[in-house]
Design a protein that fits this description.
- The structure holds 3 protein chains of 3 kinds.
- Chain A is an alpha+beta fold.
- Helix content of chain A is 23%, strand content 36%.
- In chain A, the strands form 4 sheets. Chain A has a 6-stranded mixed β-sheet with strand order 6-7-8-3-9-10, with helices on both faces.
- In chain A, helix 2 crosses helix 3 and helix 2 packs parallel to helix 4.
- Chain A starts with a strand and ends with a strand.
- By secondary structure, chain B is mainly α.
- Chain B has 2 domains: 42 residues, no CATH class; 206 residues, Orthogonal Bundle (MetI-like fold).
- In chain B, helix 3 crosses helix 6 and helix 7 runs antiparallel to helix 8.
- The longest helix of chain B is centred in the N-terminal third of the chain and has 34 residues.
- Chain B starts with a helix and ends with a helix.
- Chain C is mainly alpha-helical.
- Chain C has a two-stranded antiparallel sheet with strand order 1-2.
- Chain C folds into 2 domains: 47 residues; 253 residues, MetI-like fold.
- In chain C, helix 6 packs antiparallel against helix 9.
- The chains are: A alpha+beta, B mainly alpha, C mainly alpha.
- At the B-C interface, helix 1, helix 3, helix 4, helix 5 and helix 6 of B face helix 2, helix 3, helix 5, helix 6 and helix 7 of C.
Chain lengths: 363, 259, 301
């Protein structure tokens, strides 16, 4: 078994005039849960279909378990796919659906029964084995689709937005279940979604995609806290963006002006003087101070007015209009010792953040 | 005015479509040999029909041709639909166009062109010439009936089967045929109807050795009025009605499966 | 849903796949249609350029005579007569069928299936039997005359049968469902919001019809015309049964040439003439139908 279970080298794909995938390289490690995340039409499903063999790349090579499978048909690749619509065979029972792949591979009857029953136990569907797909709930159908794929013991399981048809609560449950299943089976999962929350909560690594190329590949924490560029920063979670220019820089520090105040930050990305940059700060990293809380206004505080207060149970979202007329978002958490979060609209406030929590990105 | 367009006008059109048929059906039970005046209910025309051994042979011929032609046409129609849906091959667009053209081609054109084919290849006019002609006539209708259903199926079902290692033949026999069975049955029923009713093409490609029902009806209608003709037409009309309704029911059923 | 990159191309739209199953399917289908649909038409075309012969039906002597003969006054008269009848029949079917199709396409959806089925049954029913039914209705001692005499509207049976009107009536009766079904298919697809939008923008009812509804249902109108016009010219038993010998149409002409006059090349030439007509109408249809509507005829079944 190779550690790099799937490798895409210089792979690209067009559909007619439409460039679905720019030339990309991607390495997927054995046993990991990797997510391809991006908006509609970013090429994530194309990557999945290229790996599965349902599409052929225009250029480049695809390796699975060390072998060049670029010209192999899907049935020889030893991977299985879970489709967005589940694609269960409506005329077969749950059992027959799951056994289908094994029967196609001409596996002995008693082994088929054994393996199907085992997987039915794992996905907790033993009692429903004789039902037809239309007699199952959405979540159950989902589990059949996954069982039907994993019963073949694929090297890699490809999942194409498998949770998007489920309602919110069920989706949450299935996220947990899927992750547990993946750990239990130890199979590599390649998961496609446009839901960033789903991607962050389940994956070992996330590939953020945009217009046919990969913007960033990293752990959920990396892409969230250290976005490679503005696209990733804005696509994953919300963020406040201050466009500005570097006033002065050296190897360690960089000086920029935000809202007419000078800040000196760490120069993590080798920014140069006069370079156009964006200073981004996540709403939850912003602290909002009321008039009575600030004894003395320190240099890093940006003055503004509360424009809107959105109560969301455990948090309060504030929309603050700064003096430059720029609108920013801040999220404040309720905690025991901070009983007063009742901001008034129009109230004068100060906003700052702990230095180092900002991310400065070149434009 | 609104009521006129909504109810009265359509009723008139339906009356126009069905009144003549109803008259034939009613008079097949009339106990009078020539007059149109109602002389009481009778089944004697039906009895005469069933005691006419010539008639029974002819009916048997038609049913045999119908069953065989419908079976051939629905099989070929199904693989045509599947090929058009799943494969890319030489002349695919041409095939699409050809099926369309075959549906709108006047039957007389098909009839004489097949007659020319048979005479050029020395195929005697009779059973085989009729069977091949009827099958050809039905193929485009069968293909389109199945095709319009196959396109309504979720494409990823076939991809999933492929992904699970099914060969083309397994996908065809284990997935497509079971899923489309109602549509294939509908195609069969409609083909059988077409074969049973076909006059024009049969007129050119049948021989004296193998008489079939529609031509018998034509001869009877042309030569003069034997009241049995009403009974025969009634039976054929009811037969068609049942077949068409059954085909529609089958298609409706398939819609549910396709969801 | 609607992922741009999921719906296009793919294994099933035809990535290279040369399984033997595919080869068998394509071969069977193409061989059958080639032998029984394309070769026969080719034979008709060839025959139409050959010479008739009393002993062996056709001799291999190329000639254009069969086509030039079409312009003889006798043939020309039949041709014009057929065109006239087919045109009147098509127009009548359109006039009767359009409002009808419009009404059932706009009726409540739970009634619609039944209403449509009631049109479909005559569509699939033998037109010969239905022609016979019309014959029973209008003959001298037929039901129509009997009723009219009985209620005293007329004193002598009307001689409807064996007249031009009878043939026209028979054609309209036989072919009306062939006009209604494609029209219905098109009108049903019409978005009702569109009509409301047009009226909302100040278009009157008639204007909406002329400027919005007709152009959008044009593929249906042409498909219906295709299915009515050509059979109207070629259904030889309608003139025979309803028109006596008086109303000779192209269909009868072909039948005569093949089965009585034994002039096959002439019959083939007339058949080619009809085929050319058909080709022109199909081209018109394909031009009018948007690519997605190309399978319009599918809705017939």
């Amino acid at each position: 078994m190779y550690t790099n279970i799937v490798e895409l080298k210089g792979v690209s794909k067009c559909f007619g005039d439409y460039k679905a995938l720019e030339t990309i390289d991607l390495t997927i490690q054995n046993g990991e849960f990797i997510t391809l995340l991006g908006p509609s039409g970013c090429g994530k499903t194309t990557i999945l279909r290229l790996i599965s063999g349902l599409e052929k790349p225009d250029t480049g090579h695809i390796f699975i378990n060390g072998q060049d499978v670029t010209d192999w048909p899907p049935e020889h690749r030893h991977l299985n796919m879970v489709f967005q619509s589940y694609a269960l065979f409506p005329h077969m029972t749950v059992f027959e659906n799951i056994a289908f792949g094994l029967r196609c591979r001409k596996i002995a009857k008693n082994e088929i029964v054994e393996r199907v029953e085992e997987i039915l136990r794992i996905v907790k569907l033993t009692k429903l084995a004789q039902r037809k797909p239309d007699q199952l709930s959405g979540g159950q159908q989902q589990r059949v689709a996954i069982a039907r794929a994993v019963v073949n013991r694929p090297l890699v399981l490809l999942l194409d937005e498998p949770l998007s048809a489920l309602d919110y609560n069920l989706r949450k449950d299935m996220q947990v279940e899927l992750k547990q299943l993946q750990r239990k089976l130890g199979v590599t999962f390649v998961f496609v979604t446009h839901d960033q929350e789903e991607a962050l909560s389940m994956s070992d690594r996330v590939a953020v995609m945009n217009e046919g190329h990969i913007e960033q590949l990293g752990t959920p924490r990396d892409v969230y806290e250290e976005p490679a560029n503005l696209y990733v920063a804005e696509f994953i979670g919300e963020t406040n963006v201050f466009e500005t220019k570097v006033i002065r820089s050296d190897k360690q520090t960089v000086e920029v002006k935000v809202e007419d105040k000078r800040f000196t930050f760490k120069n993590k990305r080798g920014l140069k003087t006069r370079q156009e940059v964006c200073v981004t700060v996540r709403p939850e990293d912003l602290a909002v101070w009321r008039q009575e809380e600030v004894g003395e206004v320190s240099d890093d505080m940006l003055p503004g007015k509360v424009e809107q207060v959105i109560y969301k149970g455990s948090i309060v979202e504030l929309v603050v209009r700064l003096e430059s007329n720029k609108r920013i978002y801040a999220t404040e958490f309720f905690n025991e010792d901070d009983e007063k979060l009742d901001y008034q609209i129009g109230e004068r406030v100060w906003v700052n953040w702990i230095p180092g929590w900002e991310v400065i990105l070149p434009v | 005015m609104k009521k006129f367009t909504k109810q009265i006008y359509p009723s008139f059109v339906y009356l126009f479509l069905y009144l003549p048929i109803l008259i034939v059906i009613i008079f097949s039970f009339n106990d009078a040999s020539r007059s149109l005046i109602w002389k009481g209910f009778t089944l004697k025309w039906y009895f005469e029909l069933f005691h006419d051994s010539g008639m029974l042979t002819v009916a048997a011929h038609s049913i045999i041709i119908g069953i065989l032609a419908a079976s051939l046409a629905s099989s070929i129609g199904t693989i045509t639909a599947v090929s058009l849906f799943r494969y890319r091959f030489f002349g695919k667009n041409l095939l699409h166009g050809l099926l369309f053209v075959m549906i709108v081609t006047p039957e007389i054109v098909i009839g004489i062109s097949l007659l020319l084919l048979y005479s050029a290849t020395n195929v005697p006019l009779g059973f085989w010439s009729l069977l091949l002609a009827h099958t050809t006539l039905c193929i485009p209708f069968a293909a389109i009936t199945v095709y319009s259903r196959i396109t309504s199926l979720d494409k990823s079902i076939f991809e999933a089967a492929r992904d699970l290692g099914a060969s083309d033949f397994v996908i065809f026999s284990k997935i497509i045929v079971p899923l489309l069975l109602p549509a294939i049955v509908a195609a069969w029923l409609l083909s059988f109807t077409l074969s049973l009713d076909d006059v024009i093409t049969s007129y050119f490609v049948s021989g004296p050795g193998f008489a079939i029902l529609p031509l018998k009806v034509y001869a009877m209608v042309r030569l003069g009025i034997k009241p049995e003709i009403n009974a025969l037409c009634t039976l054929l009309l009811i037969g068609t009605l049942l077949l068409v309704v059954a085909a529609q029911v089958a298609l409706k059923k398939n819609e549910k499966v396709g969801e | 849903m609607g992922e741009l990159d999921s719906g296009v191309g793919g294994y099933f739209a035809g990535m290279k796949n040369n399984s033997s199953f595919k080869k068998i399917c394509v071969t069977v289908v193409w061989s059958w249609l080639f032998i029984f649909a394309m070769v026969p038409v080719l034979l008709t075309l060839i025959t139409s350029f050959l010479t008739a012969d009393s002993s062996s039906l056709v001799v291999f002597k190329p000639t254009l005579q069969n086509y030039t003969q079409l312009f003889n006054s006798a043939y020309l008269k039949i041709l014009l007569q057929s065109l006239y009848l087919a045109t009147s029949c098509t127009l009548l079917c359109l006039i009767i069928g359009y409002p009808f199709a419009f009404t059932i396409a706009r009726s409540k959806s739970r009634h619609r299936a039944l209403l449509l089925l009631l049109v479909m049954i005559p569509f699939w029913t033998s037109s010969l039997i239905r022609t016979y039914a019309i014959m029973a209705l209008i003959k001298a001692k037929g039901i129509l005359n009997t009723v009219l005499l009985a209620i005293g509207l007329i004193h002598h049976p009307l001689p409807i049968l064996y007249s031009y009107s009878a043939v026209l009536l028979g054609c309209v009766y036989d072919l009306l469902p062939f006009m209604i079904l494609p029209l219905y298919g098109n009108i049903e697809k019409l978005n009702p919001d569109l009509l409301e939008a047009a009226q909302d923008l100040g278009a009157g009812k008639i204007r909406t019809m002329v400027k919005v509804v007709f152009p959008l249902t044009m593929p249906g109108i042409i498909a219906g015309t295709l299915l009515v016009f050509l059979p109207a010219m070629t259904m030889f038993y309608i003139p025979v049964l309803l028109g006596g010998a008086k109303n000779l149409l192209l269909g009868n002409l072909i039948e005569n040439q093949f089965l009585s006059a034994n002039n096959w090349p002439m019959g083939a030439a007339i058949s080619m003439l009809i085929t050319v007509f058909m080709g022109a109408m199909i081209l018109l249809y394909w031009r009018n139908a948007q690519s997605k509507d190309k399978q319009n005829l599918q809705e017939l079944v």
